[in-house]
């Protein structure tokens, strides 16, 4: 559940990059230490990151093992940034060799919640961050943004398409059931040849308009092997042959970032910046051709070469700006939990919570910097829950109350302690 309140205009511009890293740190009989060396890839990726400067970096095809997730922090993102970047938790419910991950600028964001939506082929992850508004300590509310990161099933057979449809159904079903609205960004290698595929239609023309995703550049149609779509193709930067990299030149738009309507309109605190969506390294002159031949002047030469050497995909990027929220109501769907608290709070936080799933609940208080400062366990009934939490030991200030049952976040709310 996403809770949104007033956001003081802070004027931050936030860059989001999504990238398929091509077997990063995972070796096979065809992708080896010789032709896809992780040490070399660290250097290529650092060149790309230094150029694109993402505040949020989501990835596919991270090799299994937390060490691979950590090495991007240690060898790429934080080499010159002194701990500026953090990452989400490592998950591998699907027991796959290739995983997703989210990295974020912890000066601008704090990680609020994480979940695995489904594990049909690989985990599809949901990460929720909140923006560290400079006015939080003065009582301003903040805004939450969720990122869905997925690597859909590859292949063009009917069975492959059916699997992608199942993945899309799982995502949209989770969003609908969990009451997720507002700022949601979907970064993925969708592995789709056109917008007409049923899975894509589910994402962008879902019967429930409130949860539909939007292509920020509005380029529907057949993407594969169409010259008019050349400026948006993301795979593959190579021609010729290669044992690890897919080749054949750029002719697919597999990699995309989709957003919600609220982000296009800027009504929930974050707004897509028109004209900011781009495929890094794509100049529109690469149809079925290499990224480097003919010469490519869309980015500095060292960046183009790093893109060519790093992966058989190109990264996609967009920017968003902080905006004042136009709808100041707490965004809780009518079918969601009913939460009542009284602000401000002195010693006892009184909580009334109805219309929830019964079970063992975790009640957490989180600081505006994302640090958990209090945690209590409660048993919830489906209705009629009223209990108090002793907060007398906490300093005065603004906090966020989070209530969850199992791995499901039920509700969140701002708490002011005096």
CATH homologous superfamily identity of the largest domain: Endonuclease/exonuclease/phosphatase
Give the class-level CATH name of the largest domain.
Alpha Beta
Q: Judging by the overall fold, what is the CATH architecture of the largest domain? A: 4-Layer Sandwich
Q: What's the average pLDDT?
A: 89
The proportion of residues in beta strands is: 25-35%
Q: Total number of helical segments?
A: 6
- Total separate domains: 2
Largest sheet: 7 strands, mixed
Structural class: alpha+beta
- The name of the CATH topology of the largest domain is Deoxyribonuclease I, Chain A
Low-confidence stretches: 1-10, 326-335
Total beta strands: 20
Estimate the helix proportion, in percent. Answer: 10-25%
Cα distance spanning the termini: 27 Å
Instruction: Return the string of H and E elements.
Output: EHEHEEEEEHEHEEHEEHEEEEEEEE
**Shape call:** globular
Radius of gyration: 22 Å
Summarize the structure.
This protein has helices at 38-52, 66-77, 158-178, 198-204, 261-265, 301-310, and strands spanning 13-24, 56-63, 85-87, 98-105, 109-118, 124-131, 144-151, 184-189, 213-214, 255-260, 270-272, 278-279, 316-322, 338-340, 348-354, 359-367, 372-380, 385-390, 397-405, 408-417.
Notes on the protein architecture:
By secondary structure, the chain is of the alpha+beta class. The chain has 2 domains: 13-322, 4-Layer Sandwich (Deoxyribonuclease I, Chain A); 338-417, Immunoglobulin-like (Sandwich), CATH 2.60.40.10. The protein has 6 helices and 20 strands. Strands 1, 2, 3, 4, 11, 12 and 13 form a 7-stranded mixed β-sheet that branches. Strand 7, helix 3 (158-178) and strand 8 (184-189) form a beta-alpha-beta unit. The longest helix is centred in the middle third of the chain and has 21 residues, at 158-178.
